Amino acid sequence: MPGLYFEELEPGLVVEHAIRRTVTETDNVLFCSMTLNTAALHIDHEYAKTTPYGQVLVNSLFILGLVTGITVPDTTQGTTLANLGFEDVKFPKPVFVGDTIHVRTEVESKRVSKSREDAGIVFFRHFGINQRDEIICDCKRAGLMLKKSWVDAQAKA
């Protein structure tokens, strides 16, 4: 399914993404290994038993990537030119191995690009939600999105 163009991403649009993903221990260990994050809270089950959570926590940066990735097919697949950045990234609840994550995206605002005639900037807010309906990730993201009107004009030229 293709992503949405700048003109289609209107403020107020809410997308409940159909893809859900259960987080595995392999996800967490592999991500920690690839990023050289050796925090015992993520990889040492015996240490994690002594923490207030009593178990290993899934790396929050993996969760940010997963939440953002789940949004791609419905929002930006083939229509984004660049991810411009994240702000206000929060992890209000921990994620544990075995949690199943789903995502809701809201378009907060948008504006035409000042430097590119083929694009506009869309401000998304993504919510990662676990199987208990708890928000586990809340972030704002800016994306440089392709204009359909520009694509259509190029096709006619």
Defining traits:
six-stranded antiparallel sheet; 6 strands; alpha+beta; Thiol Ester Dehydrase, Chain A; 157 residues
What is the arithmetic mean of pLDDT? 96
H/E element order: EEHHHHEEEEH
CATH topology name, in short, is Thiol Ester Dehydrase, Chain A
Please tally the helical runs, counting DSSP H or I stretches of 4 or more residues: 5
Description:
The chain is α+β, with helices and mostly antiparallel strands and about 160 residues long. It has a single domain (about 5-155), classed as Roll (Thiol Ester Dehydrase, Chain A). The chain is built from 5 helices and 6 strands. Strand 4 (about 100-110) and strand 5 form a beta hairpin. The longest helix is centred in the middle third of the chain and has 16 residues, at about 60-75. The chain is elongated. The two termini are about 25 Å apart. The mean pLDDT is about 95.
